[in-house]
Structure formats: C-alpha cells, structure tokens
Amino acid sequence: MKKLLSLGLPLILTACGGGGSDSGSSPSISASSTNTDISVTLSASESNPYQGTGFTLSWTSNAKSCTASGDWTGSLDPTGSKSTTTNTLGMTTYTINCVDGNKSGTASVSVTTRDKPFFVEVPNAFPDPTDNYWFFDKSKPGNRYPGQAVATASIDLNNDGKKEFIMVLHKGLGHDLYFAQYVSEPCKTTTVVYELNGEVFVDATDKYLETNRDFGACVDMNSATVDINGDGKLDIFFSSNQEDGRLSDAGSYMSSQLVGWVSQPNGKYKIVKFGEYKWHHSIGWGVDDTNKVFVTGNGYPSSMVNTKHVWNNTSLVTSTDTSLPIVSPVSFLFQSINGSKSSNVLIQQTFAIQYGAEAYVKQNGVWRKLNMISPSYKSVGEETFTVWNGDKRKVQVLNIDGQMVVGTGGGTGLDSLCNLKLYKDKDPVAVGAYTLSVIDNYVPGAGIKETQVRGQNAFVSFSVENNLLQYKMITIKGETNFDPGKIQCMDVNGDGYDDIVVGIGRDKSITSKRIYLNKKDGTFEKVNLGSSGLLAMLTQIDLYGSHMADFNNDGVMDVVVYPSNPGYKPQITGSFTSMHNSIKFYKGFKALQ
Ligand SMILES: [Ca+2]
Ligand SMILES: [Ca+2]
Ligand SMILES: [Ca+2]
Ligand SMILES: [Ca+2]
Questions:
Q1: Distance (Å, rounded) from C-alpha 459 to C-alpha 430?
Q2: Residue among 321, 295, 310 at smallest CA distance from 223
Q3: N or C, which terminus of the chain has less Cβ within 10 Å?
Q4: How far is the CA of 196 from the centre of ligand 1 (A)?
C-alpha cells in the first residue's frame, strides 16, 4: 500500500459497511454494500496495468471468511493479498463478499487494463557520443558533420546469447568537407562496438577489436556476415571504397580493398583488408565446390573479375576462380537450394539495366546463366539530369506502373538483397527493394533536377524455379509509406517464416519502424505499432537510421536508433554542441504479432 501511494497511483478501492462508504478519487472505483455489519476494503496495486502484466489485489475485513466474485473466484482469507493478471483489455471488476454468521459486507475494485506497447525507450541507454572524437569533434565548433553511421550490424561477438551493436562511421577531413572538389585526405572509417550491460550499452570496442578502430576506407551500407574460419563465431565483411563525396577526378583515392572482421583464437576480432582496390559496393558470401566458405564483392572502375577470398588458417587468401560467375558491383546473393551444400544459385542486379535482375545456376559443377528479368516498363525518352553540383548528364526516363522514374545513372536499382524464408519448409527466396527514383511533376523535355527526384521502395522477391528466374512484386497490406530505409530479412515473431523490417529511413518524417509480418500466403502485413512504434529523435539531427535485433536475448525484438545521413547535407542544425541521447535503445516490451 505504501508503495502505491509513493507511486502516486490512484487507489482504487472501496470500503463498504457503515453508512458512509468512501469511494475514493479514482473514476474506476466502484463500491457497494449489502450490510452495515461487516467492514471490507479491497484495493488493486495498479489502476492501469498493462495487459498480461501482474498486479496485486489486497483486502481487509473483520469477517470470518470471504469469497471472490466478478473477475476472480474462490474462497479467501478474511484479510490478505493476491497476485493476479488479466489478459482482458479494458475494465475488469473484482468483488469480495465477506461473512460472519448472518452479518456480511462487500467491496469491489475495478482496474482498466492498457494495451502493452511494443517498445519502451530505456533512458540514457548509450554513452554520450559527443565525448568520442570519432563521432564528434569538439575542437571544431563549426563542424556540422559528425560521424555518419553508414553500416550497422548486430552480432553476438562472444557467444553469450546477447548481440552486440556495431556501428561503422565515416569520419575525417574528407567527410567534413563533403562534396568539396579537392580534399587532400580521403575519408576514414571507424568503428564502435556497443555491448549491452544490464539495460544500458557500454563501449566495448577495445574488448572486441584487436587493433585500432580505423578501417582506412569508407564503407558502403552493405555488409555480409558468415563464419569464414569455422570457429563458431560470425565474421563480418564490408563493401568498402573511398567514395566520400569527393569528385571522381580525385581518381585512385576513390578505391579501397574490402574490409572484414575475423574472429581470432584470443577471443578478439582482427580487422583484415583484402582483395583488389576498387569502388566496392557489393559484398556477399557463398560456399564453393569444396564446401569452403568464400567472400566476394565487386565494384567499379576497374574490370570486373571473379575473385574469391577464403580463410587459410591465418589470413584471407584471394584467388581468381574463373568457374564462378562475376558478381554484380551493386548487389548479389548466393543461395544453396534443393539440399545442396555448396552454393548453386546466384541472383543479382544486372549490369546493363538497373531494374533488371539475372540468375546463374550451378549444374554438374558448372555455372550457367539463366534469364534476365525486370518489372515491365516503357521507355519515355532521354532527359538532361542536373546533379547536386550543377553537373549535367543524360538519363533515360522510364514509365513503371504509371510512375515516371529515372532509369539509368540516377542512383537507382535493386538493393539490399537478402535471403528470406517465405515459407517455413521451403528454400529461401531473394528479397530486395527496387529503389525507384520517382520524378514528381515530370514535364517532358524540361530536364530533371536531382532535388526533384524522390526515392521510393518497391519490394520484390526472386527465386529460381524450373531453371528460370522468377520475380514477384511483394504486396504489403496496410502500408502506404514506401520511403526508402534499410531492409532486414528476419523472423521477428519466431514462427519460422521470415518477415521484412524497414528502417526509419532517409526522410525524418518517418519516425516509425516498419515491420511487415509474413502472412504465410506469400503476402506481408504491416504491424500497427500504435504510438509505441514512434521513435523519438533529436530535432537537431537531420537523419536517422534504425536497426532491429533481440539485443537482450529475451525473445522479443528490440530497436536501436542512431544518427545517419547520406552525407549531402550537414547532419546538425542550429546551435548544437552535444549529441547526448542521439543514439537510443527501444527495448522490446511486447512480442510482435
Ligand atoms: Ca554477446
Ligand atoms: Ca569466425
Ligand atoms: Ca515471422
Ligand atoms: Ca529483446
């Protein structure tokens, strides 16, 4: 009772007996009396409990015995308390009837059960990133470009069941002077590993990384995770380059080797750089004929080659494997279907048509190219496209389902391919999103400005059936917002069917996680997260990203929200010197359903 009062909760209770019953101040209280001879009180520890969470009913009486009625039953001691819980939304009423001989008394209490929110923010869950030089440079008050989180991953780095949160950030002079024409110093990328300690995350980078945090390269949004050295711990690989916004006439500075984190016998991870210097944008892994895991990735500008990188006891060894198809520099995915141990399907964006996809299958040890496929479109014509710095180039305008989109050279394409179990007992399909560059208010012949173009996701699945690459646009019931955001293919509700999760995206007006549950019939339906799905962000930070994982290993998905911008504008607005609370932890409170 004391606890209740200290919480300031309205106490609900009733007393009856006597002529003047005190009905208390809560509107949910009800009281009744049948007799003036017995005094009975009944109260609940919470007036507004969450659905399915416990509360305590407490009662007193001067009777010999009592009986519960209403939303509880059974015989009760004359005075006592009982833990209870209700799955009923709305009001439930608990009544107690107490008797002593022919004397009796009654009391009732009502509680109103609230819907449980899906997510609850844990306040101050991350250390203040302002204190970290790699995120925010206090020595440069005019610096409006703090570290930009480009890639995130959630991996259990120490196999304790709880996932660590990994952020890769662009930082450095190149990034600060984004889109300056000549920058002497290429961008740097650095890393932070956050580990959940109780309910808050701590910076555990030094605990997990063997050397320093600097990759010496920019990384793309894409990463791939696979245990490449077979020690039971996942390793991470990033597509990397030096494309930090400098103009391409900066030449060779734009290229970089691929970067990986590989688990070591000492429990730490080693940052390894491997392969050719390229403008890498794709990264992925497969299993070769000898059942060995390999990593590969591709990028412009040098010629496309079919290299693979395998772990050989102490390092990644790069070799040319001409039997492998050349993987797309944008996005690709290997699959092992029909019970094959090695990869026998490759699905990827085509080189020629940005909306096109192509597939290869391996038959009798030989990779064979299948058909190319794309959404149906009509070519509208050529237009002059003016990019951010005033440069002009020619682009093709396409009409796709009545929408005018930039067809080539507009940063559009098939992105974020991931393996998704559409059906529990079948091979996964490849799910991705076409990032359509939609031209609003298109006027033929008037030219197109980059600012006129709006990104829009169109979800699509690919599968190889009967030696043909098939594609299907994915229907999402209940969704009207197709703004781009990072895509995760994961089973968020543990039913064995993979679901689709889309991050909060580039547009700051998107403040809600988008979660699409697999309806087991090939379609998806948006989860209505209600107000609890809204993720509160600092108004001073322009753009955010979000990442979903079960960080605390309680079976319920959690969300981390972090500052992320595509780099073309300052991330901080107004007078703002602190990034405190810019990274947020939303703990999953109710299982997604
Ligand atoms: Ca862990
Ligand atoms: Ca490993
Ligand atoms: Ca599911
Ligand atoms: Ca959780």
A1: 11
A2: 295
A3: C
A4: 8
136: tokens are: 């925010």
Q: Strand 164-171 and strand 188-197: pairing?
A: antiparallel
CA distance 131 to 175: 19
Positions of the chain with pLDDT under 50: 1-32, 174-176, 178-179, 250-252, 410, 566-570
Tokens of 418: 């991931």
Residue 49 phi/psi, 5-degree rounding, is -70, 155
Tell me which ligand sits closest to the C-alpha of residue 496: 3
The CA distance from 300 to 177, in Å, is 23
As a whole number of angstroms, the distance between CA 547 and CA 492 comes to: 12
Place of tokens 């819980």: 85
- Please name the residues in contact with 529: beta carbons below 8 A apart, sequence gap of 6 or more: 118, 119, 512, 513, 515
Ligand nearest to the CA of 269: 2
Q: How far apart are CA 546 and CA 514, in angstroms?
A: 10
202 CA to centre of ligand 1 in angstroms: 12
Cα dihedral 551→553→556→560 (10° resolution): 0
| Dihedral, 175, 180, 182, 184 alpha carbons, nearest 10 | -20
Cα–Cα distance measured from residue 570 to residue 568, given in angstroms and rounded to the nearest whole number: 7
Query: Could you say which ligand is closest to the alpha carbon of residue 207?
Result: 1
Q: Are strands 188-197 and 558-563 parallel, antiparallel or unpaired?
A: unpaired
What's the CA gap between 403 and 318, in Å, rounded?
Answer: 44
Give residue 156 CA to ligand 1 midpoint distance, Å.
4
Using the 8-state DSSP alphabet, how is residue 452 labeled? G
Q: Is the peptide bond before 301 cis (omega within 30 degrees of 0)?
A: yes
Q: How far is the CA of 162 from the centre of ligand 4 (A)?
A: 9
Q: Are 105 and 128 in contact (CB under 8 A)?
A: no
Q: For Cα atoms 370, 374, 378, give the angle at the middle one, nearest 5 degrees.
A: 140
How many other CB atoms sit within 10 Å of the CB of residue 114?
14
pLDDT at 140: 59
pTM above 0.70, yes or no: yes
